[in-house]
Each structure stands twice: as C-alpha cells, then as structure tokens.
Structure prediction request, 368 residues.
Amino acid sequence: MLLTMLDAILLVVALAVALGNGANDNFKGFATIWGSETLTYRKALWLATAATIAGSVASIWLAHGLVETFSGKGLVPPASAGSAHFLLSVAIGAAITIALATRFGLPVSTTHALIGGLVGAGLGQADGVVHWAPLIHSFVAPLLISPAVAALLGGIAGRLTKKHPDPQADCACVVMPHPATVAANGIAALAPPAPHLVVANPAECDGLDAAVRVSVSRSLDRAHIASAASICFARGVNDTPKLAALLLAAHALGASVSVAAIGALMGIGGLLFARRVAETMSRRVTSIGHRDGLGANFVTAMLVLFASKLGMPVSTTHVAVGAIAGIGAAGGTLDRAALRNIVLSWVATLPLAAAISYLMVPVIASRF
Prediction:
C-alpha cells in the first residue's frame, strides 16, 4: 500500500513514542532489583527488555480493548477519533513530553501523556468537543486511584516483610529425625519419622541431618527477579495496545506487525536511554531491601495485570512508584523530596502534552 505523507509522518512519530516509552518505562519493573543490588544494572536491563517484549506480544490476546480506548473513540466526536490528523497531534504531544521527562530522569506516565494528547487534540479540532464524562470515568479515575491503592498495598506488604523473625536465619532445612522404637500394649513398634522444617542461620543448619536444604535469600532473590519480570510483562501488555492505536491509524501496518514494531522500539528505547529514570526509581525514592522489593513488585504486577484485563488504562509508573513509596513509608525510609518531584512531574505531564497537541492541530491541518 502506498502511504500518504501524513500516514508516513504518523508512522515515524508513533514509533518515536514507542522509543520514548521504552526509555522511560522499561526499567521500572526492575527498579527494586537494581536498588536492592540483586542484579547489576546491565543484567537487570536485559531481563527487563526481554519481559517487556514478551508482554507486547501477549497483548494481542490479553488487552485488545485498549486499542479502541486510545483511538479517541468516545472521548471526541467520531469524525475525529481514529483519524490520522487527530492522532498525529496526539502522538507529537506525547512524544515531546516523554522525551523531556526522560532527559531529566523523571519517571512519567506514557498513559498520562497520551491522555493529555487526546484532550489537547480534541480541543483543537474545529468543533472543540471533548466528552468529559468518559474522560473522567475511563481515564482519570483509574490514574488517580491506582497509585493510592498501590501505596496502601505496598505499605501493608512493607509491614509484613518487617515481621520476619531473624534476618540472619538464611537457611531452611527439612530435617528427618531418626526412627524411634516405642511400646504399644507391650509390643515393640517402630515409629515412623516425622519430617519438620527448621529455619535457622547457616551455622545451625550445618549441624542438622537435613534431607533438603535451601538458602532463603537466594530463593527470595529468584522470586524477586520473577516478580520484576512479571511487572515488565504486565507493562508490555498494558502499554503496547495504546501505542498500536497510533500505528493502526497510519494504515501502514497490520495489527500483528504493529505490535511487533512497538515491542521492538520499546526494547531499543530501554536499552539505549533508560539509565536516568532507572537511577531515580532505584536509588532516590527510598532504600530497598530484598523482601521490600519483592513485596512492591508483587503489588505492581497484580494491579497492572488486573487493570489490563478490565481494559483500564492505569499507569505502570504510577502503580510502581506508589508501591515503592508505600514500602518506604512503612519502613520510615521514604525520601519525600524525591517523591514530591516525581508527583509534580505527573501533574505537569497531562497539561504539557495537551498544550503541545492543541498547538499542533492547526499546524498539521494547514499542511495536510
């Protein structure tokens, strides 16, 4: 199919949004992994990239409803929703906003930027109509509620992890006691051994006749890494359809190819440009221990996957930061100044993207 100039530009800008999304968002699942020094930055980055791409592929089956949501359907009049002129304005606003935030190491929401772009482009149309009720119900409410829920659940997880009785008890052993001879009605009988679990420090475990012995810290590290991968997978599921809506409007690629292109650009963006945002989330919000990180990641993955299944456009950024902040608040290690800067960047994301998209509407209309 021969592309028009407008479709070609929309294709390029949509891929730029995917690149920026990867740069700003890919590492967020592994922020607690690097922050707790479970893995090096490079190893964590590669695992985050692989999990994100896997989530992008899975979005074909798990989150198709989000493609329609981010075409603008229901938010603006049908004549605008899904049109290349409209979505190009949306994409430019989102791309510039995400690029600026990533440059300054601020973990913002691609979802928030896209919503701002939808609102600004809608207001910039000739009729200037935006349906505010669907905006609040389908977009704003999930974005406001999700970080609060994540912080609450993160605080609960933080308190639960603090209840571990002995941080030095790093060895879990299944001990098989020796059979004992007992008498029952004067007749000797052999009592079967009853295995039991012992959690102690490694020195104490050395003196036990253990049938099975595992390291608690290593098991937690593996679970922590798995939880981080699940967040990146969930983010890929939730974000890819939003960006695929832009590509589909360009009439250049089919649905499957659009998803593959978005996943590839998200991966490249993360590999090349994720470092600054990674440092903010891993090092500045709060200090993170192994158990804390596992709790925060579990909360984030659970909420994002649940929202994706319901077609709710929550922000992985908001949920992840909310969970980490809840953990920090529970442990008394939260850096409120760093959190304030992040929240302020969230507040600025939507109006900035809206303003850019609004200004782009007449520019695009005059040239195409």
In short: The first strand starts at residue 171 and ends at 175. The chain has two domains: 5-165+217-367, 171-215.
